[in-house]
Amino acid sequence: MAHPNRRLVIQSAAATVGAMSFAPQLLAQSAPVRVGYSMSRTGPWTGGAQVSQEPNYLLWAEQQNAAGGLDVKGVRRKIELISSDDRSDMETVVRTYEKLMGSDKVDLVLPPWGSNANFAVAPLANRLGYPFLAPTALSRRLAEMKLPYFFLLLQQPKPMCDALVEMFKANGVKTVAVVYVDDLFGLENYSALKVALQGTGINLVQETSYPGGVKDLSPTLRSIKDKNPDAFVGFTYPPDTILASRQAKEIGFNPKFFYASVGTAFPLYKNVMTPAGAEGVLGMGSWNSKTSPGAKAYFDAHVASQKKEPDRWASGACWAGLEILTNAVKAQGLDRKAIRDYVANTTHKTIIGDIKFSGSENVGTPGTVGQWQNGEFEVVWPQKVATAKLMPVKPAWK
């Protein structure tokens, strides 16, 4: 007969083994979800990155953690953000994501800022099986790369330019001048505009490229002013958007339609130009707080948490991407292949409307045009998603 103490030792040993086999499960449930990204906090990309992207990442983690953590298939786990400054440098972006997804093996990644940085990292994320919901990449070439883990939230050049040209046609525009930054973003949008103009009877009276980091656009703007076009289109980044607007004002170039690109929808634009000076300026943009009840709640939460307004274009897409990721993790846990499949095959309800993907491209939300009116960047085209009527003639610069 076994000694009674021996039976007790065996039972307690069995209990210890049971606890040990249970402990990793408990540990996994309570361990934070590690979410990695690189972001421009210094260098030329900082303006866009710190308006459209990083504030949204911080707000998302703050909101999820305040609710007990990210819902991972019914279990709340705190989010731990692992991030660093990429200094607006492409090599640093690539090296950072190689480390995050390679040796660090974070649970999820969030994308960097801008078309070029996403273009550099997308193939790597795809190879390592990390879903990428990119809110600030605007590139036909990225869509054509057919990377199954890569999703573009912004409307791409074709639908954006189709909407713009449709608006021009409906409002009697006969002549257009265009300037574009000499990189992937500028070239793709310029090409899409040229295609959209074919057969419309609208003439392109001048088309001029300029280098990134340009300090003076006045010679080009003077040349365009001499041709007196009905519409001006700039495929521009934030510093160039403001430069073109300021210099157009200085030389008295005020066409009926003045359209610039990245940065037009930023609160910074109306602050720099003054709300009266921004009046009637058109640009890329897709939402404001009137777009949906969710958009209003997000806008208010952003102002309360980040002490500044979100921009009226990519911030909405960024938050929509975080909504999609949150729902994917709730449904699928942290299985990245399952998350990818969920993202690819679901119609997602978001603050900016229904998003669905065909390959990498968001085909759910339409291409849009926005316009500053009375201190708000209103969606003015197409009319079915408009938050205000188009002002068909831009007032004089103030």
Helix/sheet category: alpha/beta
User: Tell me, what's the shape?
Assistant: globular
Low-confidence stretches: 4-23
- Biggest β-sheet: strands ordered side by side in the sheet: 9-8-10-11-12-17-18
Output the radius of gyration.
24 Å
Architecture overview:
The protein is of the alpha/beta class and 398 residues long. It has two domains: 33-156 and 290-362, Response regulator (Rossmann fold, 3-Layer(aba) Sandwich), CATH 3.40.50; 157-287 and 368-385, Response regulator (Rossmann fold). Helix content is 46%, strand content 19%. The chain is built from 15 helices and 18 strands. Strands 9-8-10-11-12-17-18 form a seven-stranded mixed sheet, sandwiched between helices. The chain has a three-stranded parallel sheet with strand order 4-1-5, sandwiched between helices. A two-stranded antiparallel sheet has the order 2-3. Strand 13 and strand 14 (353-355) form a beta hairpin. The protein is globular. The chain starts with a helix and ends in a 17-residue tail after the last strand. Residues 4-23 have low confidence and may be disordered.
Summarize the topology:
Blueprint: H1 4-30, E1 33-39, H2 46-52, H3 54-66, E2 70-72, E3 75-77, E4 79-85, H4 90-101, E5 108-109, H5 115-128, E6 132-134, H6 140-144, E7 150-152, H7 157-170, E8 175-181, H8 184-197, E9 203-210, H9 218-227, E10 231-235, H10 238-251, E11 257-260, H11 267-273, H12 275-278, E12 282-283, H13 293-306, H14 314-332, H15 336-345, E13 348-350, E14 353-355, E15 357-358, E16 361-362, E17 369-373, E18 376-381
Parallel strand pairs: 1-4, 1-5, 6-7, 8-9, 8-10, 10-11, 11-12
Antiparallel strand pairs: 2-3, 12-17, 13-14, 15-16, 17-18
Helix pairs in contact: 3-13, 4-5, 7-8, 14-15
